[in-house]
């Protein structure tokens, strides 16, 4: 049976504050745990007022303390911005405090130009992405590697277990890296609109599985596929919620057009251009929309198409109650 997981952004809805959004994320995480979801990951976004999740590690710590069994993860830490040693230390700390419940998901999206500059203005150079991955694995597992330039360094605190490590990806190239490094592999259906993403994803997953090398952070290959999900009681209600996501995904002005996640009403009254409508049609390839039976059927099809072990579901829709109902609807259909 495929495992179901949740990726959350700490969405700040219209009329709500970032503090309230974080409280609602805690509630959503507890709901996911009570329904039987396996993992709950926090995204990393900077300079986006509608998302309160700028520091997934900090939110993970908070959520781990509020829950009992569900795994908490980063979806993901954007490692081009950070020290591999410090990243490893953060996750060693989390694993020591909450053994067996921590996932280190990593990506290489650098964000907007101003965000990239601000996060890196004191750095003299950047490493290759794969070198960053290698360094994090070396530090997070405290592996002895005489050839490593900092082999004598230890990422503390030491503990007997390692967090699981996952690479977030949309390409065959990064699937090859995940296989070489021995991490889990998450293929994102949600980041970009593309007519050939199915073919790319299938090839990436094939390459990953065929070339996987076991490591201290993942003993056997594990594949996760991540779509946006909009599930509601009826097809009509789901389509209304999806229109709010449609509007958000237009991403105008580097997602600064709206200071909060657009509501259904805002989406209904927005003055769309013809270009907007074409982009919306294209963006629908990034999401699964419908009532619970339809969404479950589509998710099962995705699982079979990609041979996924797990699904990372992203209920990026307005309204606390709507997000809760989406998780409830999917859980009931999958009987998790």
Automatic annotation (TrEMBL):
Q: Which SUPFAM superfamilies match?
A: Bacterial luciferase-like (SSF51679)
Query: GO CC terms for this protein?
Result: cytosol
**Which Pfam families does its entry note?**
Bac_luciferase
Where does the Luciferase-like domain start and stop, copy by copy?
Answer: 11-305
Entry's Gene Ontology molecular function annotations: oxidoreductase activity, acting on paired donors, with incorporation or reduction of molecular oxygen
Q: Which InterPro entries match?
A: Bact_Lucif_Oxidored, CmoO-like, Luciferase-like_dom, Luciferase-like_sf
Which protein family is it in?
A: To bacterial alkanal monooxygenase alpha and beta chains.
Which protein are we looking at? Luciferase family oxidoreductase, group 1
């Amino acid at each position: 049976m495929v495992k179901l997981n949740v990726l959350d952004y700490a969405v700040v809805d219209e009329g709500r504050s970032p503090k309230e959004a974080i409280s609602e994320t805690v509630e959503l995480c507890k709901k996911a745990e009570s329904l039987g979801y396996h993992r709950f990951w926090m995204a990393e976004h900077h300079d986006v007022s509608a998302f309160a999740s700028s520091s997934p590690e900090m939110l993970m710590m908070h959520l781990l303390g509020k829950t009992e069994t569900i795994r908490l993860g980063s979806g993901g830490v954007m490692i081009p911005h950070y020290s591999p040693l410090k990243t490893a230390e953060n996750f060693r700390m989390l694993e020591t405090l909450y053994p067996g419940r921590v996932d280190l998901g990593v990506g290489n999206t650098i964000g907007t130009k101003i965000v990239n500059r601000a996060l890196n203005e004191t750095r003299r150079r950047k490493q290759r992405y794969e070198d960053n991955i290698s360094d994090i694995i070396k530090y997070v597992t405290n592996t002895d590697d005489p050839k490593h330039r900092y082999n004598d360094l230890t990422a503390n605190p030491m503990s007997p277990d390692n967090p699981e490590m996952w690479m977030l990806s949309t390409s065959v190239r990064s699937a090859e890296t995940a296989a070489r490094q021995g991490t889990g592999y998450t293929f994102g259906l949600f980041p970009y609109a593309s007519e050939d993403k199915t073919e790319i994803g299938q090839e990436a997953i094939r390459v990953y599985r065929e070339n996987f090398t076991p490591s201290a952070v993942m003993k056997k290959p594990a594949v996760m596929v991540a779509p946006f999900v909009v599930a509601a009681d009826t097809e009509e209600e789901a389509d209304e919620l999806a229109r709010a996501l449609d509007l958000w995904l237009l991403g105008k002005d580097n997602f600064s057009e709206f200071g909060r996640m657009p509501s259904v009403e805002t989406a209904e009254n927005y003055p769309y251009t013809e270009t907007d409508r074409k982009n919306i049609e294209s963006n629908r390839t990034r999401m699964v929309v419908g009532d619970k039976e339809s969404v479950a059927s589509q998710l099962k099809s995705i699982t079979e198409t990609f041979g996924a072990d797990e699904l990372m579901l992203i209920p990026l829709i307005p309204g606390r109650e709507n997000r809760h109902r989406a998780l409830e609807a999917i859980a009931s259909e999958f009987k998790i």
